[in-house]
Design brief:
The chain is of the alpha+beta class. It contains 4 helices and 4 strands; from the N terminus they run αααββαββ. Strand 3 and strand 4 form a beta hairpin.
Length: 149
């Protein structure tokens, strides 16, 4: 009798685990985080408000770089890049982002390539947090071999 009761409880649990096989790590992590937070009394309104404020400032889903494009004339644009406020790393990343965006702009406008006319990097010392910035000017070029391109 006791064996049947144990089997009747274990079999549905194992079947349920088999159905959650692909998402088990995410589910287990979420359940573990909630259980830990509840045991440590971190689900109090003060802690939740602090977590929401920290999330709003850090915003992990926002892009790392904000790129604004200003059209100077038919074949020239200025790219201004600003890095997210709270982030670690990013050394040497601005040049890659600059070139990637310049290439995408050139291809979208039907140009064969581009020349970097001016490029500079720096740190904008705003309060309360400083952030990396980069600015540059790009001139788009048509193909010399196939001018119609």
């Amino acid at each position: 009798m006791l064996r049947r009761l144990a089997l009747s409880l274990i079999v549905p649990a194992l079947t349920g685990c088999a159905l959650l096989q692909d998402h088990s790590a995410k589910l287990a992590g979420g359940v573990g985080a909630v259980l830990t937070a509840s045991e440590l009394d971190l689900l109090e309104p003060e802690y939740l408000a602090g977590a929401l404020i920290a999330y709003a400032i850090y915003d992990p889903l926002a892009p790392t770089w904000d790129v604004s494009v200003t059209r100077l004339d038919e074949a020239r644009v200025r790219l201004d890049l600003r890095m997210k406020t709270l982030i670690t790393g990013g050394d040497g990343e601005a040049r890659q982002i600059f070139v990637r965006n310049a290439r995408q702009l050139a291809e979208s406008k039907g140009f064969a390539g581009f020349d970097v006319m001016r490029y500079e990097e720096g740190v904008d010392s705003t309060r309360p947090f400083a952030r990396r910035v980069a600015s540059g000017e790009v001139r788009f070029a048509r193909s010399r071999i196939w001018p119609a391109m």
